[in-house]
Amino acid sequence: MAIWNLGSINADMVYAVPHLPGPGETLAATGLERFLGGKGANMSVAAARAGAHVAHIGAVGADGGWAVERLTEYGVDTRFVARLDHATGHAIIAVDDAGENQIILFPGANRQIGEAQLGEALGGASDGDILLIQNETSAQRAAAHLARERGLRVCYAAAPFDAQAVQAVLPYLDLLILNQVEAAQLQEATGSPPEKLGVRDVIVTLGAQGAAHFDSEAGTRRDYPAHRVEAVDTTGAGDTFTGYVLAALDLGLPMPQAIGQAMRAAALMVMRHGTADVIPDLKEVLEARFA
């Protein structure tokens, strides 16, 4: 089986700051690092490090060759990453001493992915594979429609959140992953709580409180507590969680075990500075010990 990820690829410029800047404030950073990032790239790396075969469908500009090379080094299939005449996407990320972050995102080439590229990539997909999409690329609805026609399971990680974007793909989804704020915003937009959205499985991440899984078919909710760790940087933790959940499901693990592994991976991730480059591998996740 395989995971096909229509996902963003960014250069993450991470600035260490004493506190997150307020409106009109000029703030001197105490450090700067460049990482491979983008929600799509993060999720691809996480799923690959969790043991899944991951094919990334995306785009970079002429300045993005290093990002593709790094994805390949991390075990991601990059045959379907296009080189376009647009700047590679990038993010400016401020991280404060408490590990909270603030992000400015420039989409760049991520918003130039066309349906022809999707068709070429998904032409190699098999029944039962997984398609993963987020809201940092173009062609999400077209990808979801094509994947459903080909018998793939479709997962949507609803970030950056846009209610219309989520509603456009809801009819095609098998799994929806969103955080607590996004879940509240979607409920306000649709009038339906997570278990009434018509999606078989909905996972709501709750930050330091863990996560909740809603099985609409069984009509159940199960809560998963977070591991207690000292967070230094929350950037990429949600992406790591998503990649690990999908990798486990793709490898045949039941949902409780998939979420359990993802919770462990996310706990390790918040203890590290950076994004895709520092996502833990499966051996680290399985061997980790928490208080």
From TrEMBL:
Question: What influences the activity of this protein, per its activity regulation comment?
Answer: Activated by a monovalent cation that binds near, but not in, the active site. The most likely occupant of the site in vivo is potassium. Ion binding induces a conformational change that may alter substrate affinity.
Q: Which organism is it from?
A: Cribrihabitans marinus
Record lineage:
Bacteria, Pseudomonadati, Pseudomonadota, Alphaproteobacteria, Rhodobacterales
> In which pathway is this protein known to take part?
Carbohydrate metabolism; D-ribose degradation; D-ribose 5-phosphate from beta-D-ribopyranose: step 2/2
UniProt KW keywords: ATP-binding, Carbohydrate metabolism, Cytoplasm, Kinase, Magnesium, Metal-binding, Nucleotide-binding, Potassium, Transferase
Q: What is this protein called?
A: Ribokinase
In this protein, the active site sits at: 239
Q: Does the keyword Lipid biosynthesis apply?
A: no
- What InterPro entries does this protein map onto? PfkB_dom, Ribo/fructo_kinase, Ribokinase, Ribokinase-like
Tell me where in this chain the Carbohydrate kinase PfkB domain is found: 6-280
Q: Which GO terms describe its cellular component?
A: cytoplasm
Top-rank lineage group of the source organism? Bacteria
Q: Does the keyword ATP-binding apply?
A: yes
Q: List ligand-binding residues for ATP.
A: 179, 205-210, 238-239
Which GO annotations describe the biological process of this protein?
D-ribose catabolic process
Reaction(s) catalysed by this chain, per the record, are: D-ribose + ATP = D-ribose 5-phosphate + ADP + H(+)
Q: Provide the binding site for substrate.
A: 10-12, 38-42, 136, 239
Q: List where in the cell it is found.
A: Cytoplasm
